[in-house]
Amino acid sequence: MVHLYDMRSDEMAAWFEELGEPRYRARQVFEWLYQKRALTFDEMTNLPKTLRGRLSEVAEITTSREITRQVSKVDGTTKFLLGWPDDVTVETVLMRHDYGNSVCVSTQVGCKMGCTFCASTLGGMIRQMTAGEMVEQLMYSQRLLDATDERVSSVVLMGSGEPMDNYDASMKFIDIIHDPHGLNIGQRHITISTVGLVPGIIRLADEGRPITLAVSLHAPNDELRSAMMPVNKAYPIAKLMEACRYYCRKTGKRISFEYALVGGKNDRLEHARELAALLEGIPSHVNLIPVNYVPERGYERTPADQIQAFLRELKSLGVNATIRREMGHDIAAACGQLRAQYMGEGARPPRRRAGAITSGT
Ligand code: SAH
């Protein structure tokens, strides 16, 4: 079966041509899929009936099912756990901000990067998500928003998985949701977050896409970063910063650096000073994230006043920094935790657990 969400419009046009159909069918189908949110071929009334019948035999629209959903009573943040026929599950999150609605998408089932504070990597990487499966994740949020006539205005590739380790599918996903005949989401409203895979950063810089790059830094020196993030052994901080400088030079854009504050690990004022020195000369913004509690990891959060002191120190050294606002703190915690919970308990619905979603601001 062909997965329609997995095709760019040019690919779909070529595919229709192969079927002996005019290329403009692709545009028609794109509009049905993304503007009218059709879920069946019967709805596509401007296609000949025989074609609709044929399409239903060779192509599919939705390939996943919703296993469970959690909605925050505090801010409407909605977390979906989706399942595919090969028994893999991923999470996607819809966050409602006053400036619009953003969706956090998972690019892999699990993750192999091994960051010591992260729930997504606990069971390793099971398989890649296809572009179409990423589109499908986004469509769950869009369909929910349709009830109130709202749209997804921004997208972050910050769910489970490492997008730079699934580069082609991640970029194809961006092409599909950016298509003017589709969802028409501006590239400036799309953020890709990486653990720091240097070849990916360089490739992205060379392609010159106007998307936003976020780099998960989390520590200001190699000793600390290698202890928290194994990837640092392959791409140490000096190499990473060199790639970041290259990216800024090539694209003229600033980079968003993520820094999860872990109690007693990376949250001292001297770390703030080290971080400021590291970022000198790089157009950047630092997102300070109070670490989300992951039961299997047992890290402590930095106390609120110490987070403020860390922020003040950064600012006094000229670093552009903010503390990331937490979303949906009354529903199951950080990325990967709903899935981890689900896998741990078999198919029973997950219990509530304190924590917060901080991905994707
Ligand atoms: N692999 C990519 C994108 C997915 S992770 C990356 O590493 O950037 C999205 C963000 O959530 C990353 O910045 C990641 O480091 C962070 N994160 C993971 N676990 C966390 C936790 N327990 N608390 C706070 N942030 C966490």
What's the alpha carbon Rg, rounded to whole Å?
21 Å
Main beta sheet, described? 10 strands, mixed
Query: Hey, roughly how much beta strand do the residues contain?
Result: 15-25%
Mean pLDDT: 92
Q: Stretches where pLDDT falls below 50 for ≥5 residues?
A: 346-361
Portion in helices: 25-40%
Q: Figure out the total of helices.
A: 12
Specify the overall morphology.
globular
Name the ligand types.
S-adenosyl-L-homocysteine
- The domain count comes to 2
Assembly state: single chain
CATH domain topology of the largest domain = TIM Barrel
Content-based structural category: alpha/beta
Number of strands: 14
Q: Going across the biggest sheet, name each strand in turn.
A: 3-4-5-6-9-10-11-12-13-14
SSE order: EHHHEEEEEEEHEHEHEHHHEHEHEH
Query: In whole angstroms, how far apart are the ends?
Result: 36 Å
Named CATH architecture of the largest domain: Alpha-Beta Barrel
